[in-house]
Input
Amino acid sequence: MEYIRGRYSWLIRPLLVFLDLFIINLLAFYYFNFNQDNLYFFSSVFFNNKHLLFIVYCVIFWMFSTSFISFYRVYRYTSALNILSLLIKQFLIFSILVYAFIGVFRSVNIQAFVTFKYLASTFIIIGSIKLLSYYLLRAYRLKLKGNVRRIVIIGDTVGANELKNIFIQKKELGYKLLARFSNSNSKDITGNLNESFSFLEANENIDEIYCAIEELTENQVNEFVKYANIHHCNIKFIPETKKLFSKRLKTDFYNYLPVLSLQQVAINHDFNKLVKRTFDVVFSIFIIVFILSWVSIILFILIKLESKGPLFYKHKRNGINYKEFNCYKFRSLRTVKEVKGTYVKQNDNRLTKIGKFLRQTSIDELPQFINVFKGDMSVVGPRPHMLSYTEDYSKKIDKYNFIFRHHVKPGITGLAQIKGYRGEIKSDEDIINRVKFDNFYIENWSLLLDIKIIIQTTLNIFKGQEKAY
Output
């Protein structure tokens, strides 16, 4: 079970619930005039049955709907994007509930626009409070060192090191690393695994223990679990990062036998595909008409002045379900022939001067909006690989995880690209992390995530990225 520790942080959630309910009902009194004769707040509560019924109705269904979507389950590691997604979901549900109430009680004479103003005001105020409390808590942890979780990491694996770096670099999350134990000889290790138990017994104020299970024996895992249960601290396990864990497996029980099956991810649901395709078409038309149209004329002149060859460079790539298509780019090299092993390297002598600028700013990718309009690509998705590399990459990681990224249309930009895993593959870790981020995107897709990736890509164009060459 999850233990809640701390002096006052457990009060935050009930306080937010109370504030939200208060705002919902206060604004209802302001916007909805159920009875013009009752002008005062308290008289309308006690003497107007419809007002009282609306209060009870809102309280019950608000609590039910927020519980259903885990509206108040916001943790220190929850992103602002997830909070915004929860706000949109909750107010779509709440809007339906409010209109349903007015529809049932037809004697309530409220204009549709007034109801819309009520819902919009409620959304803005509650959303502002929720986001403000989120950022205030982050600032409180960062500046005043409050609301801190005291943690211990057991293990010296890749995953444990990644987690340690997150805790150290992201101070706003409020994790204080007290010690780290492993049988390895790394510099920042406090002691070996046997010494960890002595440390835990001597420090009873530990909130969470993170164990890299691949480094522990079954008996050691049981000892840590036993300690956590006795001392009411949370224990969590770090998986091996080279194994790409996912939500794709669903467990069914045939009598007592568990059977795993693959379940369809949200991005491939019919309605979501329609939403994503509509966004792609609208966005690509905007870029083609207002940017690509005049940029192409300027680049045609600059590219031709420096080297012979076409304006656009066509190359075969694997798309959805490995379907081949011609991917377009502005030509940035002196050659247009695609040869295996031709990933552009830093200070590559094949690059033209204008081509180097195009690649550093990712302007060379603009013609791919034509691919998006045609339906070969999406604005956001896993980047398509050269045909000559597809088979090589699939040998370096689990085949199913590699195949899974080809179940959606490739994108001009993607989650892996904004995280720095773009361009040249220098090691197995590069392709493993690229596929890991691609699969995470597919499993956790939302239109808001697409917009966030597009904004971050735009910012990266101005800031520059290490592998943008």
